Amino acid sequence: MSILSTIKTSCRDCYKCVRHCPVKAIRFSMGHAEIIDERCIKDGRCVLVCPQDAKVIRNDTGVVKNFLENKEFVIASLAPSFVAAFSDIMPGQLFNALKSLGFAVVRETAEAAELVALEHAQLVKEGNKAIITSSCPTINAFIYKYYPQHISSLAPVVSPMVAHARLLKKEFEDQHPRVVFVGPCIAKKAEREESEIIDEVDVALTFDELKEWLTQANIDLKQFPFESEDLSSVQWARAFPVEGGLLKTGDFDTGILSQESVVITGIERCQRFLDNFEKEKEGLKMVEMMSCEGGCIDGPLLKSPLSLYQRRKKIIEFSQQGTNFDGARKILELPSLRREFNPHPIPQPQPSEEELRKILTLTGKFTPQDELNCGACGYDTCREKAIAVYQGLAEAEMCIPNMRARAESFSSFLIAVTPNGIILVDENLRIVDMNPALRQIFDLKGRLMVGKMLDEFIDPSIFIEVLRTKKANSQEIHYPQYNNVYVKLSVFYLEKSGLLMGVFVDLTKQKDQEQMMEEIRGKTLEKAQQVITNQMLVAQEIASLLGETTAETKSLLSKLMKILRGENVEE
After folding, report:
1. Each residue's pLDDT tens digit, 162-199
2. What sign does the CA torsion over 437, 440, 446, 452 have?
3. What's the average model confidence in pLDDT over 413-419?
4. What is the rounded CA–CA span in Å between residue 353 and residue 369?
5. What does pTM read for this prediction?
6. Which of 143, 312, 349, 398 meets the CB 3.0–4.6 Å disulfide criterion with 377?
7. 247-to-19, 118, 121, 152, 256 alpha-carbon distances in Å
């Protein structure tokens, strides 16, 4: 299963994920978003911004539970930001709670973070070029996928997560340990699957997954003791997740006037820096890049009631409780902290200008003036969106202004040509609009009706009832004041717009025909009655001659009258 996926039935054409994805790693098909794994840098924004909760993160808790059920030796490596994620308890309480879940050992990833920072410092000493830190897996993926030309500047050093796994597996090698990292980052799940370091970390969980697991196990964190022997003695490495944490841990100059190092957080700012990297790197020795603004303390899955400033403060206070770490607890020979980064450039086929113009015309953009660049589709410009269509990432129908114009044009056409009268009324019973057919039915030619109150036109009773109940209603109504018009009036409440719509079906001709038929029936009955009366008078004079003929004649004429009245005639 992919690390990130979409629940298609919940995805509803809002394009918000495209709008917020810095690399547009979203493909739309049949109106539904699909995350393109090879393009994705796992920054997690699509998960955070989706209003329908249609983005799903793969849950790896089951893998860890299997390790524990199989009695394996499992170690938890807690990212330094855990004190902000579990801000209402003491650190030792969390350590003890994890032990109760079955973890044999619980350790702080900060133990390795200090070594990683020192390794970066060593790189600076070895060369004379600007080094980009490699502890943020989102930034790493961003560079090897979208800026492969700068990959030589990416520090060939593993992240604290991987470094800690190497340390722990060496320290507990006799136990053949499983190392489970727990942190605020979705990208860590992808990092552990990179071919260059695959399976060095056995599982990467998020704080959300851990919290859910603790809840399911009915574990109350506050019931555990404050103290834990597994708490580390590290100091500044605990501040690794804040802006400048790596530089501070590696003893770089982090002052505001420093010209040798710079800290850049937030993917957009990192992107702008990389766009002009050849110019920007002049004079720099170290560039600390983090995809989340403010650092890992604002990671996508670090859900905390604390503000960003409060999280930072809590982590710095925790870091000041420790002492300088001596490098490793029981390891005489440290494992290598180096790795390789290989470029994985994303193909970006570009359409010709002619192909681009053809795509633009599909959404009514025939001239540059037609290109609104509104961003509603998720792309900054109409041309960017057209390129995405060419690359198979977007659909032409994603242009909301064009689709709206087409829908309004079509609906206006239908309202204009329908033979039924249509009126729109707001909730104050003021006339908003009416179509030409309604004006013709009521002979309103030349009369200004829009803006008037409905009761100046007709009796508003049925509209008031529908407004009260929000349920449609239909009635046949006679309007003698308007040339004796008869209509069937159906009134509907349009919830989204807050308007009432009345549809008038003209029944006047039908009623006239019914009245004419009634008059014909009446006259026919009258004539038939006269015939019967005259016949009876004649019958009385010649009764002796006609006999049964008179009775048969009366019977036949009576049947005729019943037929004219519309009554059933029995044989």
Report:
1. 999 999 999 999 999 999 999 999 999 999 999 999 98
2. negative
3. 77
4. 17
5. 0.71
6. 398
7. 33, 9, 9, 20, 13
